[in-house]
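BUG-325 | component: ligand-complex export | severity: low

The export step for zinc ion jobs runs without errors, but we want the raw record kept on the ticket for reference. Input record follows.
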Amino acid sequence: MFGRIFLQRTYVRIFIEMGEAIMGDSSDTDLQIINSFYQNEEACIEALIAMKWPTGFVCPRCAYPRCTRLTTRRIPLFECGRCMHQTSPLVGTIFERTHLSLMKWFRALELFLLPDGISAMRLSQVIQVTYKTAWLMLHKIRHTLGESDARVLLSGDVKVNSDQYGRNPSRCQFPHPHATAVVAGCTLTESGEPELVKIRLLPHKRGDGRRPNRLELDEFITRNVDVRTSAVQSFPLAFRLYTPLRKLVREAWDSLKSTYVALGSKHLQAYLNEFTGRRQLHLAGTKETQQQRLLKLLSMCVSVTAISYHKLIARQLNSPLAAAA
Ligand SMILES: [Zn+2]
């Protein structure tokens, strides 16, 4: 009896540590029926190799272009024809040192691209892995989007809002005790809609209508905008924000709330990166197929080194309170 209670408490503690609510997550939508483009492990491996070396193998040590392919392992090794260095196509990607099949990974990427993504609990059920494994896979994908986002600056006609994340859009007039200050910035399409979007959380500023000040807006611009090529307009006043961008921060809240119910503040920035990153991948709209989007996400995954579980858990917790998501 004692052991069982202890085990339950341990699980609760793990879920809290992971920062993702598990309630309201049992709906039985059959995600298995979504068509998968890569039907076997070989197809996944070949797609990954093609993405890693689009113009053919290049030795990472001496840049020699010829190699011998060694197929005795689950993932083939490539031996350089000059320096004999052996390398795996997984090195330097988010799949490095994974014990899972690439089919499970590709499936996770496909499900991550669903309009509102997928929770770790659902993913664990669909691809038959533990909750912890699914949670780590999704965070590795989020980390990839965050790193890719950080490599690109906003450039052109740029709008920057001093906003809040976590307010009920239909009850905007009431201050929300858990709303967190965010700086949101975007470039614009020809029709004035947000194109490339970045949302940065200021986790130390929560509740009581607290928003980023002018200094914090300037800091966001310094870090995220190519000021030499941009015309930047800041909106520091709560009643005079750039409306399409404000709408988008509300959409982020709606989308993340629908999938994850409630999120702790520890990983909230990663979830915001997930929202803006996925939105970016879907921007080409109907012109682009689901497979093209998957390949775009895959190209990010092969250019970002995986973050470890211990690094994820060690992220600094900026506030002891949980953010309302
Ligand atoms: Zn070599």
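Assignee comment: Attached the raw record above. The first strand starts at residue 67 and ends at 70.
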